[in-house]
Structures are given as structure tokens and as C-alpha cells.
């Protein structure tokens, strides 16, 4: 039995704000981390998702703000997170727990107006919750000063490493005072994370809650075999048969998340997708609609789901078996949070059995893969699915390109016919004659003829020779005269070219 919040050394205003949220007693990670944080110790905390680790570092920061001088407009605490959703969630937690402390908090992440963030920074901020990328933008602009930060928190450190932020984190932490307090929280601790800890922390206290490789015992785990082309039918069948109202479906890709959401909508199941290609407003609206019950299903990718904090998610469904065992633990941790129960269903195709073996090795458990009872495995997807559409588009001509007719050109073509034995110049004039016959008759006013001035050359190209009028019948003498003109033009061109090379 853990002591109440009032016994952790928190102020009365802070305890009042905590109790107003409905929490009566701290979780294990909170009861162990808060006293150490109040003693200004560096901390490494590992715990499952949903065990209350956000409050484990937010409450000590608020306690420090409640007892320190607020007249200075310096940033006192910095919290780094991998995603904008998680940053927004932490900002909401700070405002909820600190409603009677009234901290000045700003969430800094991409997708929001830079001008609004600059305006809040000029007014003064106590706590900054940021993603590494946008915070570096502010540091380069010199709009954020970290020289007075006394507390640095790295939340979801393992995910920041997976997303390639580890070097950015090192750069940011180097901008803070060496005397700072550093708290790091992560679901897993890899060798790379340990190297980061050695570089930025001083004699940290290590807090491990439970076995980090094992999901919460309150989560029932089920694995169902299904061919890839039948996953959609099984997903809809499971949701309808069990009457699920709050379902989180995981997809490996952003395109897959959109596809799953659209197909569920076609089947009459209200759903919406959330991933990094969505705008911030779209993400917020989707998450708010899911929380309020407007959507039965929220389809998400692994990265986007890191910031999802929704109470009462009854089921987590892995539409794609996660390729990494750590992602499996993170995914199903969205249900069965704290002391609640939840169900996790994973669809396993034949090609995904190798991923299941990784999960079994990582968690140390053996899982039974079975067919879902009552589902017709002979049922195929309808013909109007995306695969059928792609097959139809394969035979459709690309816009902007004309398809070449399959029939050959007529044999009387003067230009392309290989059987012509006439001289080349003769063929050219015959082609010009045919072109003149095909041109529409000019019915407008007579065109003004260009007359060159004295000493001015004619605009008519040297290589152009006006053929006889198409209305007159050409004799053999006419053709010979035209050929002589062509030869004369060739001679003049040859002389001009020689003069040019001599000049060079």
C-alpha cells in the first residue's frame, strides 16, 4: 500500500489539484520517483505505458515552481518528447495537475504557428514541452534561452532514439547548465540509451517498475491466423461480433492506416485514421472525436500512437503483426492501463510468423495462433477493393500521352515509306505540296507581305525555296529548275560555314 500524495512532500495546492482529477493514491512509479526528484536526484525510470510516469516528473517540477520565485521570466524546466501528440498530452497534464499553481507552460512543436510561440516566449514561460526539431529551430533563432534551466526531462527516450533524435538531444542538453537535474524515462533501456545516460547524468537513481519485457497482466493477448487478403473482413467481423465501441487499430504504414479507415467506413463502422501526414488540427480533431465517442475505431501508426492518452480503450488490434517486439509491448499497452483490463488481438499472416517468434523471444512467452471462431475463412473481399481498382488502372492510358495506333501507316506515305526511289529534294517538295493541299483556305483579309528595306536582308530563310503554285501542273523542266535552286542554296550555305570556321 503506497502513501497518499500528501505524504510525498507535495504542497497543499498541488495535492488539491491532483485530487480534483479523481486520483486518490500515487502509482508505484510515482511513489518511488517523486521523493527522489524532490531531492534533486538524477533519475532513470523504466515502466510500462499507462503506469503514471508522466505525473512522476510533472509533479516534482510543479512543486519546485510552487516554492520558487516567479518574478523572473526565465525557462526553468525543459521536457523533451518525440512527438507533437505526446507534447500536447504532457502540456495538458501540467495544466490539469497545476490548476491551483498556474504555471506558465508552452508546448513547442512543428505544425503550429511560429509567431504564436514567439509571442508566448516574449511574455515569459516557466516550462517548455518540446520536440527536438522545433526546439532546435528556436535555438538557432535565439528565441529560446536554456541557460537558466534547472530541470531537464527526456520522456520516451527509446522512441526518440528510434526516430533519430539522439544527436539533437545531445545538442539541446549541452545548452543547459551542467548543474541541472536530469530525469530520463523510457519503456526500454538499450545500450545506446545507456551511453546517453553516461554523458548527461550524474549518479542517477534507477527505478524499474515490473519486468519491462512483459505487458501488463491485466491484458488478455490473442493471436489469430488470417491470410492478408482476408484481414479486412476479419477486422470488421471481430468489431461487430464483440460489439467493440473503443478500439485502437495499429497499422504498420500511413497508407495502410488510411486504407483500413476508409474500408471500415464503407462497412458502416465509424472510424478515423491518425498519422504523421495529417495536419496538427486533423490529429487533434480525430483524437477528440475518438475520446468523445464519435468514432468507434481509431486507426494509428506506431509513432502517432505514442501521444495517445485515452481512458477506456477496451481493445487493441494489431492489423499488421509488428516487426519489432518492443513495438508490440508499446501497442498493447494502450489498453489495460493502470488497474483496468483490456484485450489485445493480433492478426498473423503466414509471412508474419517470423515477427511472432521475435515477440515470443522478447516477452519470454509462447502464444497459440488459432483461427477466429465463427469467421468464414472462405469469404473473399468484394471486387471493388483497391486491388481490383489497380488492375483496372493498369490498362488505362496515362493522361497526357497518346497511344500509338496498332495499324501500320499507309504505304503511300512519302516521308516514312522505305520504298521511295525519288531524290531526297524531290520528296521534300512533294511533301510541301501535300501540306499546302491539307491547309485550310484563308478567307480573311489579305496578309501584309513583308518588303525588306534597302540594304536589309529578307526574312525568308536561306534554306526555304518557294515551290510552284499547287494550281499549276509542274513539268520536268520545273522540277529541274527547283533542283538547281536547291544546289545553289547548298553552295551558299557551304561557303558561309567555311567563313565562320575561318573566323574562329
Describe this structure in words.
With 504 residues, the chain is of the alpha/beta class. The chain is 41% helix and 12% strand. The strands form two sheets. The protein has a seven-stranded parallel sheet, with helices on both faces. It has a seven-stranded parallel sheet with strand order 10-11-9-12-13-8-14, with helices on both faces. The longest helix has 28 residues.
Unreliable runs: 384-407, 410-425
What percent of residues adopt helix (DSSP H or I)? 40-55%
- Broad shape: extended
Please provide the count of β strands: 14
Strand order of the largest sheet: 3-4-2-5-6-1-7
Oligomer state equals single chain
Instruction: Please report which band the strand proportion falls in: under 5%, 5-15%, 15-25%, 25-35%, 35-45% or over 45%.
Output: 5-15%
From the N-terminal CA to the C-terminal CA, the straight-line distance is 98 Å
CATH topology label of the largest domain: Rossmann fold
**Backbone structural class:** alpha/beta
Query: What is the CATH first-level class name of the largest domain?
Result: Alpha Beta
Provide a compact summary of the structure.
By secondary structure, the chain is an alpha/beta fold.
Summarize the SSE layout with pairings:
Layout: H1 12-20, H2 28-38, E1 43-46, H3 53-67, E2 77-80, H4 84-97, E3 105-108, H5 114-123, E4 127-130, H6 132-141, E5 151-155, H7 157-162, H8 166-173, E6 181-186, H9 191-200, E7 205-208, E8 219-225, H10 231-242, E9 247-250, H11 254-266, E10 271-274, H12 280-291, E11 297-300, H13 302-305, E12 315-318, H14 325-332, E13 342-348, H15 353-363, E14 369-370, H16 386-394, H17 424-438, H18 476-503
Parallel strand pairs: 1-6, 1-7, 2-4, 2-5, 3-4, 5-6, 8-13, 8-14, 9-11, 9-12, 10-11, 12-13
Helix pairs in contact: 2-3, 3-4
Amino acid at each position: 500500500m503506497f502513501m497518499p500524495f500528501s505524504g510525498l512532500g507535495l504542497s497543499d495546492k498541488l495535492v488539491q489539484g491532483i485530487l480534483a482529477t479523481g486520483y486518490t493514491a500515487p502509482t508505484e512509479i510515482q511513489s518511488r520517483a517523486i521523493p527522489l526528484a524532490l531531492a534533486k536526484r538524477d533519475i532513470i525510470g523504466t515502466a510500462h505505458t499507462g503506469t503514471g510516469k508522466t505525473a512522476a516528473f510533472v509533479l516534482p517540477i510543479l512543486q519546485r515552481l510552487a516554492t520558487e520565485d516567479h518574478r523572473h521570466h526565465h525557462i526553468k524546466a525543459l521536457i523533451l518528447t518525440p512527438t507533437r501528440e505526446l507534447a500536447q498530452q504532457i502540456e495538458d497534464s501540467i495544466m490539469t495537475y497545476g490548476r491551483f499553481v498556474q504555471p506558465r507552460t508552452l508546448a513547442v512543436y512543428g505544425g503550429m504557428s511560429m509567431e504564436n510561440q514567439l509571442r508566448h516566449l516574449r511574455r515569459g514561460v516557466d516550462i517548455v514541452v518540446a520536440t527536438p526539431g522545433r526546439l532546435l529551430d528556436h535555438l538557432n533563432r535565439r528565441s529560446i534561452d536554456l541557460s537558466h534551466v534547472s530541470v531537464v526531462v527526456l520522456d520516451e527516450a527509446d522512441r526518440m532514439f528510434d526516430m533519430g533524435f539522439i544527436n539533437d538531444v545531445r545538442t539541446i542538453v549541452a545548452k543547459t547548465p551542467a548543474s541541472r537535474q536530469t530525469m530520463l524515462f523510457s519503456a526500454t533501456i538499450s545500450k545506446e540509451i545507456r551511453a546517453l545516460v553516461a554523458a548527461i547524468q550524474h549518479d542517477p537513481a534507477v527505478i524499474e517498475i515490473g519486468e519491462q519485457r512483459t505487458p501488463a497482466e491485466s491484458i488478455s493477448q490473442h493471436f489469430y491466423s488470417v491470410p492478408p487478403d482476408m484481414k479486412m473482413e476479419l477486422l470488421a467481423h471481430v468489431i461487430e461480433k464483440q460489439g467493440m465501441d473503443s478500439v485502437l487499430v495499429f497499422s504498420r504504414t500511413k497508407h495502410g492506416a488510411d486504407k483500413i479507415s476508409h474500408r471500415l467506413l464503407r462497412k458502416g463502422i465509424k472510424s478515423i485514421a491518425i498519422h504523421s501526414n495529417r495536419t496538427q488540427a486533423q490529429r487533434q480533431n480525430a483524437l477528440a472525436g475518438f475520446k468523445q465517442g464519435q468514432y468507434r475505431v481509431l486507426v494509428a501508426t506506431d509513432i502517432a500512437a505514442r501521444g495517445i492518452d485515452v481512458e477506456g480503450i477496451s481493445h487493441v488490434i494489431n492489423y499488421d503483426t509488428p516487426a519489432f517486439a518492443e513495438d508490440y509491448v508499446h501497442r498493447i499497452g494502450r489498453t489495460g492501463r493502470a488497474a483496468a483490463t483490456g484485450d489485445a488481438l493480433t492478426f498473423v499472416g503466414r509471412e508474419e510468423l517470423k515477427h511472432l517468434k521475435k515477440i515470443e523471444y522478447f516477452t519470454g512467452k509462447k502464444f497459440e495462433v488459432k483461427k477466429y471462431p465463427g469467421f468464414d475463412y472462405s469469404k473473399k473481399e468484394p471486387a471493388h477493393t483497391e486491388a481490383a481498382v489497380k488492375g483496372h488502372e493498369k490498362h488505362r492510358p496515362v493522361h497526357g500521352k497518346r497511344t500509338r495506333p496498332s495499324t501500320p501507316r499507309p504505304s503511300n506515305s512519302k516521308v516514312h515509306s522505305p520504298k521511295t526511289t525519288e531524290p531526297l529534294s524531290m520528296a521534300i517538295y512533294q511533301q510541301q505540296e501535300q501540306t499546302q493541299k491539307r491547309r485550310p483556305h484563308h478567307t480573311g483579309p489579305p496578309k501584309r507581305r513583308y518588303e525588306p528595306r534597302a540594304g536589309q536582308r529578307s526574312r525568308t530563310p536561306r534554306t526555304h525555296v518557294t515551290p510552284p503554285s499547287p494550281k499549276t501542273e509542274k513539268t520536268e523542266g520545273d522540277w529541274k529548275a527547283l533542283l538547281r535552286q536547291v544546289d545553289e542554296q547548298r553552295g551558299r550555305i557551304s561557303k558561309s560555314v567555311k567563313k565562320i570556321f575561318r573566323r574562329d
